[in-house]
């Protein structure tokens, strides 16, 4: 399989973690987002959304897009270790936290949206303030969504889930924008637990061949 | 079950369609988003994200958030008719289109984000232009993501899926913002097929008790 991504893309990072947890190795193809390589005609033919990640299967004809759809596919086709709990209610809770990040934080503060803000002559300070506020409010809501009596060390028990795949990259992004994380101890504890795992270590941006 | 929503919320609308397709009736509780009722302390205790929908289960203690997580839960607990295809690859394709709308269109142009733009003194014309462009670009990409040889009448064959649950409300939103839909015939054909189904009819905003 080939994963089209970019070392700093939080969406590609989620899929890198999933692949590493499942013990799957893939060829990595980098598209430099700040240089706009994801808008090249050849890439748009692969993914008309012009976004990373894309997972190309070994037949070179099947192309999967959208990080959460790719992670769910990986989980269905390579069930061990699972990214989602065994019962429907807990799956819904894990997916809700993943989606609270993947829908309500990341797309509202990604490169593309911040670039669009700049075209409206919004001052640079307000652009970074926009990202900082959306991340801070969104992560606070995520923490409040967590079960109250969960012993951890992960968000939903003794192993990471789809929620951590979204959380860890989003926390890194939060730091880049100077978000104060002091009031988010449960998220930080889960992140610390993730960082002890080789799969999370291998998927980190600074470990990717295209890291700057 | 109780569904906390708002007649015009596209996210609540997705869940209304899912419930209707599954033949489930629920009590509807409306929260007027333009009046900010979703930010009332009582509602934030239910959903700290301050967003609709929320599905409260009959035990009155279990609360599900995030429309796609709720729809997946409904599909797992009430499998007929299915909202997702039977095989993993087609499920990934359906989820990708649903997520392309639920992550990359809706949260970037919803009420909350447009209100935030206004706080940055962006002119009203640019605010509506922002929404129109994001919806137009996003829907064009969705159409391009569809399988080329699909006979329809729905996006992925003879029955609607999670993708239509996201598409139909998003197309209504597109019209509110004056998006030109003429180049999106496959999306419009799927919408027309949906509109013949009683479940989609019953879930429409103008059929809700809180419709204005």
Outline of this structure?
Two copies of one chain form a homodimer. In chain A, 52% of the residues lie in helices and 7% in strands.
Q: Please, could you describe this protein's structure?
A:
Two copies of one chain form a homodimer. The first copy, chain A, is of the alpha+beta class. Chain A has two domains: 2-80 and 201-207, Glutaredoxin, CATH 3.40.30.10; 88-198, Glutathione S-transferase Yfyf (Class Pi), Chain A, domain 2, CATH 1.20.1050.10. Helix content of chain A is 52%, strand content 7%. The first copy, chain A, contains ten helices and four strands; from the N terminus they run E-H-E-H-E-E-H-H-H-H-H-H-H-H. Chain A has helices spanning 10-21, 41-46, 67-77, 88-102, 106-109, 111-119, 124-145, 162-176, 185-195, 198-203, and strands at residues 2-5, 27-30, 54-56, 63-65. Chain A has a four-stranded mixed sheet, with helices on one face. In chain A, strand 1, helix 1 (10-21) and strand 2 form a beta-alpha-beta unit. In chain A, helix 1 runs antiparallel to helix 8 (162-176) and helix 7 runs antiparallel to helix 8. The two termini of chain A are 24 Å apart. In chain A, 45% of the residues are buried. The mean pLDDT of chain A is 96. Chain A binds chain B through residues 47-51, 62, 64-66, 68-70, 72-73, 76-77, 88-89, 91-93, 95-96, 99-100, 102-104, 106-108, 113, 116-117, 120, 122, 126, 130, 140-141, 144-145, and chain B through 47-51, 62, 64-66, 68-70, 72-73, 76-77, 88-89, 91-93, 95-96, 99-100, 102-104, 106-108, 113, 116-117, 120, 122, 126, 130, 138, 140-141, 144-145.
